[in-house]
Amino acid sequence: MTPNPPTSTYRLQLQPEFPFAAAERAVPHLAGLGVSHLHLSPVLEAVPGSTHGYDVTDHGRVRAELGGEEGLRALAATARAHGLGLVVDLVPNHMAASPRHNHALRAVLRDGPDSPYARWFDVDWRAGDGRLLLPVLPARLPEVRDRFRVADGSLHLDGQEFPLRPGTEDLPLDELLDAQWYRLGWWRLARTELNYRRFFTVSELIGVRVEDPGVFAASHAKIVELVADGVVEGLRIDHPDGLADPQGYLEDLREATGGRCWTVVEKILTGAETLPASWPVAGTTGYDALRRLDGVFTDPLGAAELADVYREFVGKAGDRGGRWEATERRAAYEVVTHDLASETAALTRIAGRICAADPALRDHAPWALRTAVRELLVRVPVYRTYRTGGEEVLTPEAARGAKAAFAVPEEAAAVDVVRDLALGALGDGPEHRSFRARFAQTSSALRAKSVEDTAFYRYTPLLSANEVGGDAGRPAVPVEEFHAYCLRIARDWPGTGTVLSTHDTKRSADVRAAIAVLAQCPEVWAELLAEVSGVPAPDPHVAWTAWQTAFGFGSPDPDRLVPAILKSVREAGLRTSWTEPDAAYERAVAEFAAAGPGRIPLRAASAAAFALEPHIRAHALGALLAQLTMPGVPELYQNTEREYRALVDPDNRAPFTVGADDDHTALVRAALRLRRARPEAFGPGGTYVPLAAEGPAAAHCLAFARSGRVITAVTRLSLRLARAGGWQDTELVLPEGLWTDALDGVREFTGGPATEVKLAELFEERPVALLARVE
Fold it and tell me: Which residues pair with 138 in a beta bridge?
């Protein structure tokens, strides 16, 4: 068991503008909130100037721009003096593909497959001309040829630097280029010609083979040292789905750290999917909790009505038909055939080599194998398969659906070959293991890019539902389902993380709360859209998305809204994209966003909109208190101890600041201090008991008890509640004992079978209640 498991964490985004010293100055404020641990974004050496740190360049050094190892250890000491520990974000899957800064990659480029660092990266040296493709040129090679120069034993181009193969320095330029272990190519070639594993579709991040014991040891020595020295007490594992064998990696990590770390994984669970029970971790980083928290405060009937309004308003400007499942499937096909063409080509090459070497599998055409790979990938309903349980994901039904894409039934036999390879049913040789791992890795990239980064921007009836791990087609979660989730977490994963806002959420919790309230009043939203129709938009889809974003954000701010809206149309890929931009369309989007959503205060535009403010507050506070007291370890993202309105990155990655207290702050302090004072009520061994209200408005109360010592009760769907006449005689029976209001420290309530509490009284001062049993 972890010696010092967190009771709550606070995430800080480190960057050159906010280094270790700045975090150290923030420690007294954060300790005063009641958190037990600071959660730091990646601390190892990264590309100079990086504002996020996920582009690691050297696993053996703490980042100099943040203050180096001395600064990290000083921060740990200050934190410890205030009763806090450190949790660090660890990035095992990828490094920056920067020859200038990544010494391991530089060695491979210089010395080729014989380099001792060649084992670090997934490079298919048999693809193409046998060299590693670097898609870094701004144009085709002939167009930039005259800008190359050789100096100091390296090749230089426009600020980029590449090592030279020994003995080639004095060759004529064309011969020199051909003599290298790498091929410099136009950046657009990455889509189809890439022969190294990357992070999703980001060619600037190269995958790392931590499944190799030597690579694991070398890339984890520094973090293991920091754990052994007590500097680091917890680890957040970034993107475990990108690893060849996530469970094997986590087992290696547990052994290396001696089990001294609270460890959670950034695992995105889909639908009812659960974390593999065999993984030696405390749980996830909390996106599964976020979906339940957002969903339980979303009105299902209103969300369905809003979807109808959306389809009528957007029409043909949105994704065809405006139905979530169809949008999701179309996006998957686009991504797997376009953005991930290099990855599907790699899988096809591996499958082809296996078939060529096995007499029983010969004569499957490359196009048939490629089609089978594509058709099976788009039918994986979760992010990826693992060591066990793959048959539950790659089902016979999925295979039958994949075979339907073949015009000739005999060619469809390739589907069985690809499925068996992905499940590990055809052998355990190096190529077989490689295919199985790469299929799973590609599957996770496909899911992330097609759902999170494409479909969520195309299907936008209720933007609050379009969050990592969410289900845009089913935005609401019944109270019973929320309780069932909490009961399972309390039993199986009591140390898992829970979140509402992160550095990766597309909208902060307070922005999502405002948007979600619209599901309780679709007619008000339709009226608001009609009132602002005089501001011409490039198309109805961008108008809907931009105005709803602005409504959630709450105040006009073109400097923040315009970039977020431009990013949304590029990610959607309906009229423009990152790689094929339509400059005229993007200019029109920017002008519309600045003149309309960036200028007009939509939430104050009418009495009906202004009247929603108390209900937005009720949702925001209710979700916050539920997150802080439900099973798991709650994390606060920086600045969310007060009202925090932020949009998609980079907007949500601005440096930490200390702001004025508000009702969020009072709630955070009360809940987190209670968690620290009564850890046995919330941690492993603590119980979760749903509490059901009785009366006409019972459905509007979400309540639960933690180990008979703490009670949380919050208002849900408060606008619907007000329209139905309020709480009336609705009551809540508290467990036996005397209970005090932890938010004001004054009010007291008596619990027991015959002592019902009127909810109108309980929620008289605020829409939430946190009660502590007097002991």
Answer: none
CA distances from residue 379 to 296, 372, 441 in whole angstroms, order as listed? 28, 11, 15
Alpha-carbon span 54 to 98, nearest angstrom: 13
φ, ψ of residue 182 in degrees (nearest 5): -130, 160
Q: Do 768 and 715 contact (CB within 8 A), yes or no?
A: yes
How many helices (H) and strands (E) in the chain?
30, 26
Closest CA to 158 of 150, 142, 147: 147
Handedness of CA 376, 380, 385, 388 (dihedral sign): negative
The answer to whether the Cα torsion of 760, 762, 764, 768 is positive or negative is negative
| Positions of E strands within 596-753 | 633-637, 688-691, 701-706, 710-715, 731-733, 737-741, 748-751
DSSP structure class, residue 18: B
Which of these, 91, 348, 337, 92, lies nearest to 195 by C-alpha position? 348
Amino acid at 32: G
pLDDT means per 10 residues, the chain with 775 residues, are 84 97 98 97 98 97 98 98 98 97 98 97 94 97 96 94 97 97 97 96 97 98 98 98 97 96 97 95 98 98 96 87 91 97 97 95 94 97 90 94 92 96 94 96 97 97 96 97 98 97 97 98 96 94 97 96 98 96 98 96 90 97 98 98 97 92 96 94 94 97 97 98 97 95 94 91 97 94
How is the beta sheet containing 497-498 ordered, strand by strand? 283-284, 262-265, 234-237, 85-90, 37-40, 9-12, 633-637, 497-498
